[in-house]
TrEMBL record, chains A, B, C:
Catalytic reaction annotation: Hydrolysis of terminal non-reducing beta-D-galactose residues in beta-D-galactosides
GO molecular function, one term: beta-galactosidase activity
Pfam families membership: Glyco_hydro_42, Glyco_hydro_42M
Primary enzyme class: hydrolase
Record lineage: Bacteria, Bacillati, Bacillota, Clostridia, Eubacteriales
Name of the protein described by the UniProt record: beta-galactosidase
Segments forming domain Glycoside hydrolase family 42 N-terminal: 10-376
Organism, as annotated: Clostridium frigoriphilum
Length: 667, 667, 667
């Protein structure tokens, strides 16, 4: 991509009056150069079974084309029309709660052939209509696709066939999943019970893994249809989203993003996050690093908040700070959901760039500045290449398995992932994400392994080898505890990688009034406390970084570090405070030569960099606070782009609240 | 009505032994002059389909008649007999939870023809039996009637017909309700989906509005039957109840009381409230003002607590204080639920005047004092006429719509209503309630408009005119935001009345650490904080009473006041503390000449007044506290009725804890 | 029984590899002498309908027999195989939530004939196979049997027949249960409604009582089958469990243990409890006293925790302290659930003596010490006879009824029971439990009656006589309020026993800011507060121990004591602090000559005693704390068994943290 996309989702269908020309005028004033349309609007495009009406799509494309605004077409399949459900109620997914009821989006069974039949027809009809239009630059398949817990009879039958393929001998299934427990054995495939009632974590987690594969199949199927029509230079993307905690939080439980992204030409994402005093940039960075890693390439931010919802109305400067933060992570677009605020229905308070009155407002006015700047020097920022030496190894399977065994952990997998990610973010350590299928694990100097609860033996062997060959690794509690079938290892814990870690343990507990001792971290007493989980580590070859401070557990190690081959492996056996984690990570970064001048600055000063299309280094300094910050510019001489001024190494720079500088180095 | 009714609900059917004569003896000792019977007892009166047994009704009427105690007959239709459900299970309402199950009351579909057939028959049978009896003074239709969320196929079909009548062109429905959103369009009436699944707030709120009309129809239908039998001087009433928060709190979501009251000859109500240290009288006043306003007339308190439930056992004096508080609001009756405490089933701990042992107890003994006083000077208190210059405009539609959009407001409509009402109550400002259909809006000097979220344009125009012509108005945040179809206005906000208010806004947020500034209220820092909601007001012609105190929002107004025509319009753009609201209201009251000597006293001294049948002014001074209070009597010379002593203006009066004086002015 | 059993549950079926010989070796090292097998494993023993496979049972028995380890066989009926549910889905219980779904244990209808048919066949097959084996010492019927809320059509039909038998005249049912209320009358048996919807507490509680009888029938039926096969010296037991609050808390709501135990030769139980800093021994004592009381005999601890779950990993010394605590309460066994930690499924973190790695660990190593000591001097501890003069009267019916009327009490029956039990425990007062059918009530010197809410008249008369004849009794609030049909008495409260108590009341409330006054207890202000419930007591002949301290209720008594005949009856009319209760109990204990030297010590010093098979007194001193404790040995000269040393009266003894001494008196 050669220019930054700056845009909005636009719904002509939802307008209470004809706004199209006025809207385009206001878009042009904000230098908006792309709109996403058609997603969610099946019932407008096909008001009755087989009756098609392209008026909204046509007129928007016509006007945009004339205005030189690009268009991304979303297939409308994630929200189904009333006539479809009335004619064929079985398209609604059956879940633990029974069969769904019409109303919400994302309530269908994505494997239902009736749904697929009609979905295919509407996709083809739209593609026929739009794919040759000049302004159409790409396609978004469906939207925020997940499996929606679909688990009706048809899905369960497919699951049984899938299992039979995996375990031709049913006894292997029983043994591997431990189904003898509580008389759950399935001694004949015909006896397979309704999987929704299972209490067996291996079986339950396998079903969820199977459900994730349905998303891959569904998206590939859509991609194949779209590919029949699309022109070479048009992209195909998906709008991935994350574990939702009122905002984009962590690894998505219901999709394996790495797998699902394979059928796309470019990954896309939506990122929503707290703002006002709670704006940190960490979700923007997390979501960006994750999405960039899916295809090891730039990605599209297809949705992010404008005025958002409840208390997300941005302070002055925040919208712009956010926009450049996306670009600094490798995004090639910033697109708001959405242009105008909707006057009815459900997301009425999830506000767009414009409020319900369609007039100028401070948020829209700030978008105009962003558009101006994207236009002015976006060519120096677009398609930023990142070169990170640190990677975080994530796993949908670990996430799911820890949900199944959450009784032992009152917080979940993503709490551990974000605990680790956020400390790296705050120290300006750029990182990529990898998963168990990544082929490029070995290229990193430092790999972070949070709570990799279930994991196949071969990946653990590979990690041993990685460390042996000079890699550095930080592993947390609850890693390498079970195999890929959520069967706990009966070898020494942690399974296999106890070798590179130089520790083992066979007892653990939830800590009550347990602290750390024996380290030299400069942390408060409260920060010295451990919580949620602790493993009673016994080093074999490792040295102890911290012991537990407790009358009964004082002899056990809590954090250890081991030299193995030419690498090092650090183990954190308990959930510590952020302050302690930071100290541990500083040690590891220093040991692995990853602690540089950028780490001298910390959040709220955030530094990001990469290489632009001319292979020049571009460096961002962000001030994520309401206070002015003075920093010393530490990179090579270059041009500060927002002011178009030369800046030299060592120069003092004043960063205004919620503001930033961007430097393109001269060499 | 010429005398105060003092009474109880009486259930001969529930007695564990024959108590009738002994009970009547104890009632007479307490000067009880009315009992309400038959309500809830269908299964006793019609033990089998078509088999009738009037023994309990007959014997109670016989004995009451002889004892000169009046009787109110309740139709027994709100609790259905076992045989009816066994014969016709479909009489149980279908709701979001599926079809109901027998056991609780109020579980039937009030539109089901089988239910209506049997209900009509039992009503007619009872009316035939009792309507000509001398002691029977009136009839209560059903009890606490609501729509019970009935929404089975039959109800939804009626709803579709109702909608088709409202929107003959289905595209108007789609446009007005914004059904294009998330592909919810209904392009043909046959496609109408199960409304219980809808996520469309316009459609959902309309369905609830439709459900409320079912209550009106049901009660009118009962009234028509009862009217066929009743004598001229017998009244027809209903026992309305309120939004329930463990006690009677606010506007009832499931009934439009104004509409439902039209078929009655007198409105009735039940009012339950906290007591002991938490007794304030505000629920008595709120419920009374509301019920009096329904027909702009006196009303019946058909149920209130005796010993009540859990921690409602009254302190000495409280029962009497409460009784006169009802009368001071315009009630013509005080009736306890109920005479005796029930020995089995469900409301065993919702205790009556008598405990389970049927013996005298302090609560019953206090009732004897009340009865004695009602008897002695009740003729001077009965049928009190209230003349209020202040009215509060309430709306079931706003309540429902705010429930649909509660994601933006973690408290609901009634929190705003009560926030406003309670401050007026505490300042001794008498008020009426009006609704959007009230024809008498213009007679008030001051109208309060809490959170009138959805409202038709013509009412807003009318409010503009009202202010222009000299009226005064206080409007809060979240008013005039949508039209009657819960479609957000795309005009300047607040829709239409921005004209009289002299402000507009197009951004809002949930406030975090936002305070007020720029006013001269004498309030604490904590009381200066705003919460839950804030709109960023920009005055056009209004003056600013308070600005937001916040780094980013400091330029916006929070509370404004505008002169418009010969009236004034005040806008409160955020949820403030009670203390700030009080200061704002004092200003408005002073400006509109509503701030008099009675406002010099505040809660716990509560002053109420009205005009009796001789058109003499009657004034109550209540002490709602456990402390003695000395006040200066400020009204005209008259007779203090409880002591039957002359009292003169300026006289110092000592009010004992939880006590009162009542003065009939001489002139 | 002549020797202590020390053992584990053992599941060869769940093993991820062949561990049998290695496990037996490790068991022998820990002096384990019994394993419990086969429970839960139906799907392994009968992999298909009518196909049997005894390999796991056979091989375990073979190896255990050779190792001289005894075996208890559990019938496998509490967890049903997949094929059974696939063939006959109706075996799953129908409850309020609808029909169950396969997966969890304890989900079947224990009255379903299909289930009973297959259950009988598998029991007979197993009994044929194992009952003559030398090492098999007894049988456990099912496991933690309860009624699982089964309430399908068949169960409800049985219930109607049961009710018709109890009330041949349906009007008696209506009168006794108060069904006229809310039109719930059942005027013909055919009209009987679905009992799951009832709001009538009498009907609802009766149904739960009926459901408890199903457990008795089911266990008797199993016992009859097992008895056909068992040898004379083999025992039959059940593994009872308690109200579960994350650990064993109180009286089991879903089984009447006294009734259910009648078909057993010895009672069995599982006891789980907090540990680490929260270990108090009170659950061990409570569960032990209860289970010993069922048959007035020794009992088996069939399950207790090893490493347990979440934060139950024991500190050094705790496992041993717990083991001897069980024995000191009269247990003849300590058996861990379970030997090894399970590698899959659901209870993966409910860890056994061995962790998942099967290696030695501190918990297993402590078990070795226990096994060694049981072996060395267990013959002096086994079959301990307890002679208590204090009993607590408990009632399933009161528990259920208080659940139905919990709106008046935000804590339940067991909170009152444990409040009372725990204070006795902490004062080293040994006690038994009795129920309303106990024939030995009169043998106790002091009877505690917590919240005996519903109770037949004849038991109350019996208690009057008991006190009259010199018995001492402590009764709490909410006792004798209703009869056995949960019909509130209309006599003076408390019903009938107001005679021996010398008090009455007819008003009560939930207390807000109410304290006690008029007593001479040395307690803090906070401890003087009452909560949850208070009755306004009026003494007739009783003296007042404490009054309420409150402006309105200050004239009422809160705690009273009455002399009646030659006994005394104390009434506690409110929920007090533990400190106040302790003071009251000390007074009662002193008055009834139950306050001896053992009461001079308090928790964490716990003293237990009994008589061994040689009729010598055995005394335990436990230190339930992390601090060393010095005590003065107060019993007769004897041998301290753990050190095998003579100890004399008055000798100072140092108790290490979480440690104990055991003395067998010489005479």
């Amino acid at each position: 991509m050669k220019k930054l996309l700056f845009g909005v989702a636009y719904y002509d269908e939802y307008m209470p009056c004809d706004r199209l020309n006025e809207d385009v005028k206001m878009m042009k004033e904000a230098a908006v150069n792309v709109v996403r349309i058609a997603e969610s609007t099946w019932s407008s495009v096909e008001p009755q079974n087989g009756v098609f009406d392209f008026k909204h799509i046509d007129r928007v494309i016509d006007v945009m084309e004339e205005a030189k605004i690009s268009v991304i077409i979303g297939t409308p399949t994630y929200a189904i029309p009333t006539w479809l459900v009335k004619e064929c109620p079985s398209v609604l997914a059956v879940t633990k709660k029974g069969q769904g009821i019409y109303g919400a989006r994302q309530n269908m069974d994505i494997t239902n052939p009736t749904y697929l039949f009609y979905a295919e027809r509407i996709i083809r009809k739209i593609m026929e209509r739009v794919s040759k239009r000049k302004c159409v630059i790409g396609f978004q398949l469906d939207n925020e696709t997940k499996h929606y817990d679909t688990s009706g009879v048809n899905v369960q039958l497919s699951f049984i066939k899938y299992l039979r393929n995996k375990f031709p001998n049913i006894n292997d299934l029983n043994d591997e999943f431990g189904l003898s427990y509580w008389s759950n054995r399935i001694n004949s495939w015909e006896d397979f019970p309704n999987v929704l009632g299972t209490i067996n974590g291996s079986l339950g987690a396998e079903f969820e893994k199977f459900q994730r594969t349905l998303v891959n199949k569904f998206l590939s199927w859509q991609a194949d249809i779209v590919n029949e029509y699309k022109k070479e230079n048009q992209f195909v993307t998906q709008n991935f989203d994350f574990e939702w905690r009122g905002y984009s939080f962590g690894v998505q439980p219901k999709v394996n993003h790495f797998e699902a992204a394979k059928c796309l030409t470019i990954a896309g994402v939506d990122i929503y996050h707290p703002t006002q005093d709670l704006l940190t940039g960490s979700e923007i960075s997390f979501g960006g690093d994750m999405t960039r890693s899916l295809k090891s390439d730039n990605y599209l931010v297809l949705e992010t908040q404008a005025q958002g919802f409840e208390d997300w109305l941005p302070y002055d400067g925040q919208l712009r700070l956010q926009a450049f933060s996306h670009i600094a992570s490798g995004a090639n677009s910033v697109m708001y959901w959405h242009w105008h605020s909707i006057h009815n229905s459900f997301e009425t308070y999830w506000k767009g760039l414009l409020s319900h009155d369609f007039k100028e407002n401070p948020t829209y006015n700030e978008a105009k500045i962003i558009g101006y700047e994207f236009n002015k020097f976006g060519d120096k920022l677009v398609s930023l290449q990142k070169k990170n030496d640190v990677a975080i190894l994530v796993s949908n399977e670990a996430l799911t398995a820890i949900e199944w065994f959450s009784m032992t952990l009152d917080f979940n997998y993503n709490d551990v992932v974000r605990w680790m990610y956020d400390e790296l973010y705050k120290m300006n350590v750029g990182c990529d994400f990898i998963n168990s299928d990544s082929c490029n694990i070995e290229k990193y100097k430092l790999i972070m392994v949070p709570a990799l609860y279930c994991v196949p033996d071969n990946l653990l062997e590979r990690l041993n080898t990685y460390v042996e060959n000079g890699g550095n690794m930080v592993v947390t509690f609850k890693s390498a505890f079970t195999n890929e079938n959520v069967k706990v290892s009966y070898n020494d814990q942690p399974n296999i990688i106890n070798k590179c870690l130089g520790i083992t343990y066979n007892q653990f507990t939830k800590p009550n009034n347990v602290y750390l001792k024996g380290h030299d971290f400069n942390v408060s007493i409260e920060d010295n406390k451990v919580s949620h989980w602790m493993e009673l580590l016994k080093p074999t070859t490792a040295e102890t970084i911290a012991y537990y401070d407790h009358p009964n557990w004082g002899g056990y190690s809590a954090i250890t570090k081991n030299s193995y081959g030419t690498g090092t492996a650090t183990y954190i056996g308990c959930f510590t405070s952020k302050a302690v984690l930071k100290e541990v990570l500083i040690g590891v970064l220093k040991d692995s030569n990853q602690f540089g001048q950028e780490q001298e600055y910390n959040f709220p000063i955030i530094i990001k960099s990469g290489y632009n299309l001319e292979n020049k280094k571009v460096v961002y300094y962000f001030n994520y606070s309401a206070q002015k910050q003075t920093i010393k510019y530490m990179h090579n001489e270059g041009t500060e782009l927002t002011k178009n001024k030369t800046i030299i190494k060592g120069e003092e720079v004043l960063l205004e609240p919620w503001n930033l500088i961007i430097v393109e180095e001269n060499i």
